[in-house]
Amino acid sequence: MTRPLYTLDEILAATGGRGTDIADGKIDSISIDSREIGPNALFVAIKGDRFDGHDFVETALSNGAVAALVHRGGGAGRIVVADALGGLRDLARAARERSRALIVGVTGSVGKTTTKEALNHVLSAAGATHASIKSFNNHWGVPLMLARMPESAQFGIFEMGMNAPDEIRPLSQLVRPHIAVITNIAPAHLEKLGSLEAIARAKAEIFEGLEPGGTAVINADNPQIGILLEAAAAAGVARVVTYGFARGVDWQIIDPQIAAGKSFAQVVNGDDRYSLALSVPGRHMLSNATAAFVVGHLAGIEAEVILRALAGFGAQPGRGQRLALGPEDRPLILVDESYNANTASMRAALEVFSSLEAAGGQRAIVLGDMLELGAESAAHHAGLADAVLASRPDLVYLVGPNMAALASALPPGTVTGHFTSVADAEPVVRDALAYGDAVMIKGSNGIGLGRLVASIRQTFEKR
């Protein structure tokens, strides 16, 4: 008989809550969304920026939740605690305390979600693996993911994000990783952090939650590598392992090649050399995959198993996923990079697009504003001009007010259209595309380019 995620007694003990008229003592899932209630679910009524979960307790219970963890109101099916989010953190601590899994924490300005997914491929090939979903990497997402980790998991992977200093530290101290990975430092969240150095220090907070004897895995291609190494030493990290294209790193990526929508490289560690092949293009993908390779090696997984798992790894929706829509002989190629953007990821995506050929049609790019770049936002947008031109587009569409700086930096006649909003851009871009074309769509998530991706898919998938 499969052990439940928690018994009611375990939830009450972990949270110090008081339960009333709860019929079933078995909990198999935890949710903060009343619309996504699974079997034997516990609904946690946290208060977010836009919604208060307490307003949806009755809906959650009527949708099948066994109980609701609340800090306001009472009645049947409620477990009352001092603070619902605090109760969720208590459950996360209980899950971590009972776990015997190898725990990996991942952060970085660019590539953390992709690296987390690559890690999931690698570790899942060796044992039962629990990993964060989507980008649940903030003050409620991390405890929710940790609280959901079953006791039987052999590996746990947790992504950690931040918008300001002192946000990753408590997340890492909650997760207590055995291995902490920093993928990249890039100008994201400059509005609140002010400099790349400050971003590096904020990301390095992940080291402060490392378990004694833990390992830091750091991308040495970061110009801020010195800050990261100093932070690791200050946190008393037992072991530091570096990777990247730079010389002198512990795991060096050499002879990178991008061809036919795939990536190839050699990864060298001491006297050992491994042939890495990915089904996705891009130097940045080789870097992310190498981070996963290193962690797999540290976990004791055989190289052949790791390489086979990475060979089957693909880009995720919104993060470089490539779709061929319509007829096989003349499809519309859609590259979905709509989830997020900063200067580093923009350049990486444009570099990959430069090698993508359309099936006889035009090559188009749609670039949306990069958000949270602070006072230097205009300069960062304008600075993409060379990368845009190098990507060889036939059509260039820009979305958002910040993209005016890029429009001004490009030669006259380069920009096909500049729109204030996705709503304005959607019909124009969609109607300009045809089978045989290739289009890449990239911008910060807050711009909402996912709507344009969905519209193009709906239009061209079924014809």
In short:
The protein is an alpha/beta fold and 463 residues long. Helix content is 34%, strand content 22%. The longest helix is centred in the middle third of the chain and has 16 residues, at 283-298.
The proportion of strand residues reads: 15-25%
Which CATH first-tier class of the largest domain would you pick?
Alpha Beta
- Point out poorly predicted stretches: none
Q: Helix tally?
A: 17
Category by helix and strand content:
alpha/beta
The Rg value, from CA coordinates, equals 23 Å
The CATH architecture assignment of the largest domain turns out to be 3-Layer(aba) Sandwich
Percent in helix:
25-40%
Task: Average the pLDDT over all residues and give the rounded result.
Answer: 94
What do you see in this structure?
The structure is a single chain. The protein is of the alpha/beta class. It folds into 3 domains: 6-87, Udp-n-acetylmuramoylalanyl-d-glutamate--2,6- Diaminopimelate Ligase, Chain: A, domain 1, CATH 3.40.1390; 99-311, Mur-like, catalytic domain (UDP-N-acetylmuramoyl-L-alanine:D-glutamate ligase, 3-Layer(aba) Sandwich), CATH 3.40.1190.10; 321-460, Alpha-Beta Complex (Protein-Tyrosine Phosphatase, Chain A). It is built from 17 helices and 22 strands. The chain has helices at residues 8-15, 57-62, 84-98, 112-124, 141-147, 168-175, 190-193, 196-203, 225-234, 283-298, 303-311, 343-354, 377-382, 385-390, 404-409, 422-432, 450-460, and strands at residues 6-7, 18-19, 26-27, 29-31, 41-44, 67-70, 78-80, 102-107, 129-131, 155-159, 179-182, 215-219, 239-244, 251-259, 262-269, 272-278, 321-325, 332-337, 363-368, 395-399, 417-419, 438-442. It has a 9-stranded mixed sheet, sandwiched between helices. It has a 6-stranded mixed sheet with strand order 17-18-22-19-20-21, sandwiched between helices. Helix 3 packs across helix 5 (141-147) and helix 4 packs across helix 10 (283-298). The longest helix has 16 residues, at 283-298. The N and C termini lie far apart (48 Å).
